[in-house]
């Protein structure tokens, strides 16, 4: 019960968990150190012409060697939690079978240092660095990948639980690693599959979550919490009247039918299957049961709105965002702070979810240096400030949101944008690995300290 706050003061609940997030391939570097295997992102980024400046994650933020000083930065920020991910090929170089103890040891060191600093580790098991050997066997097109993910999740969650980790997420952003990786081809492995193949692959991805959820549960203490971090399309009403809100509620469920809705309901919606017709995926009742097994919390990565309006035929219609729609520096990152009101609100209302974390929110912005060498990322401050106001409003209206993680602690390897887009609260000079806290870091530190939007 989150009763100890005054809704009128922009205050967050007293036990609210403030954090920051990163992911293994984006920050670790050390890509061939201590027996780490090759991931699809190594292969993709090493192939010339895929990514601006041919940037890759070979070194990234070198967090593999600098985690101690990076954790000192977390302490400076005053955050209570750090969301990181484990690199599958660091732990299982061949994707299955033999465990690389030296790889696991890195995460044990990281977790021990977090505990020493009084920071709670939130561990994501799959943030897109699929072992290349598994891609060679079809990757997410192959049902076996879902089983292999679960086997890796069992080993890793057991080791992390032994190290004292109590919070686990199976996968990060189902839509991104399936669609960007296999439909548009902008992410690794860079394929462009048709609708039928995508429907089947999406099914294996949610199955990967479901099988991993069971595997983690079997290997961690009963009081550990296990969920996922997903990025549902954040259906948002253009106008806040009853009719538009209802259209957005329908949209939130249907736009995410093959991902979060399938996981929350253990079935695909009728509309989804009808739209696909002969391209619908093959699935069994047992699979749907595994996919729909209850999670302890739902993690939402929320960046941009999908505006929705009523439609007589299908109940809702998505309003396209034209080229002049306001955006942050990444072209996909349109600005609409209300989505951080509606996404947790609908998640709680539609499925009765009792525990929600915002596992990512943040933005690429211009990092201007002022005369004294300060990084004046004013746009990022405004973005986070406006989104957090909406989140506070959602909590005041009853959404059970327990915590919020800024993406990201520091600038890092932004996938197909390489190092050309920065999301950090802390600036990283990649030539020297020097870290410089930005204006947004100072802003976020005061939000955390005061427990309210300043
Ligand atoms: C998320 N889109 O990715 C990821 O979880 C992070 O690893 C990433 O760095 C962060 O957001 C910023 O991009 C996304 O095209 C990538 O809509 C692409 C999209 C959304 C999220």
TrEMBL record:
EC code: 3.2.1.21
Keyword Transcription: no
InterPro entries tied to this protein: GH, GH_1_N_CS, Glyco_hydro_1, Glyco_hydro_1_AS, Glyco_hydro_1_beta-glucosidase
Catalytic activity from the UniProt record: Hydrolysis of terminal, non-reducing beta-D-glucosyl residues with release of beta-D-glucose
Highest rank taxon of the organism: Bacteria
UniProt KW Protein transport keyword: no
Keyword annotations of the record: Carbohydrate metabolism, Cellulose degradation, Glycosidase, Hydrolase, Polysaccharide degradation
TM region(s), chain numbering: none
NCBIfam families hit by this protein: BGL
Assigned protein family: Belongs to the glycosyl hydrolase 1 family.
Protein name in UniProt: Beta-glucosidase
UniProt source species: Granulicella cerasi
């Amino acid at each position: 019960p989150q009763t100890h706050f005054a809704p009128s003061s922009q205050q967050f609940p007293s036990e609210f968990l403030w954090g920051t997030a990163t992911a293994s391939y984006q920050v670790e570097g050390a890509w061939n150190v201590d027996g780490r295997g090759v991931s699809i992102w190594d292969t993709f980024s090493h192939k010339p012409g895929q990514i601006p400046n041919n940037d890759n994650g070979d070194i990234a933020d070198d967090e593999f060697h600098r985690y101690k000083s990076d954790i000192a930065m977390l302490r400076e920020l005053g955050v209570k939690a750090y969301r990181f991910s484990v690199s599958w090929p660091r732990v299982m170089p061949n994707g299955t079978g033999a465990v690389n103890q030296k790889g696991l040891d890195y995460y044990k060191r990281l977790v021990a240092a977090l505990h020493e600093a009084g920071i709670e580790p939130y561990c994501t098991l799959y943030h897109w660095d699929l072992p290349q050997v598994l891609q060679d066997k079809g990757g997410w097109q192959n049902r076996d990948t879902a089983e292999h993910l679960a086997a890796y999740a069992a080993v890793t969650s057991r080791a992390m639980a032994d190290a004292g980790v109590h919070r686990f997420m199976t996968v990060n952003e189902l839509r991104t690693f399936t669609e960007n990786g296999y439909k548009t081809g902008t992410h690794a492995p860079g394929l462009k599959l048709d609708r039928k193949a995508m429907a089947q692959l999406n099914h294996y991805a949610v199955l990967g979550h479901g099988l991993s959820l069971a595997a983690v549960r079997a290997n961690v203490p009963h009081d550990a919490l296990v969920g996922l971090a997903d990025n549902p399309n954040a259906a948002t009403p253009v106008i806040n009247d009853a009719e538009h809100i209802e259209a957005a509620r329908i949209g939130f469920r249907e736009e995410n039918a093959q991902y979060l809705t399938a996981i929350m309901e253990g079935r695909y919606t009728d509309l989804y299957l009808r739209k696909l017709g002969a391209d619908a995926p093959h699935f069994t009742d047992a699979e749907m049961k595994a996919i729909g097994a209850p999670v302890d919390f739902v993690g939402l990565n929320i960046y941009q709105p999908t505006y929705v309006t009523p439609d007589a035929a299908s109940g809702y219609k998505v309003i396209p965002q034209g080229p002049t729609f306001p955006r942050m520096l990444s072209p996909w990152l349109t600005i609409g702070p209300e989505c951080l009101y509606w996404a947790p609100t609908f998640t709680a209302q539609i499925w009765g979810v009792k525990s929600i974390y915002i596992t990512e929110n943040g933005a690429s912005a211009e990092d201007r240096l002022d005369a004294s060498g300060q990084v004046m990322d004013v746009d990022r401050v405004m973005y986070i400030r406006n989104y957090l106001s909406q989140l506070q409003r959602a909590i005041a209206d009853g959404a059970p949101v327990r915590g919020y993680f800024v993406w990201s602690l520091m600038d890092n390897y932004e996938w197909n944008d390489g190092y050309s887009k920065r999301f950090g609260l802390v600036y990283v000079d990649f030539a020297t690995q020097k870290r410089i806290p930005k204006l947004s870091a100072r802003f976020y530190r005061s939000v955390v300290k005061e427990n309210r939007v300043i």
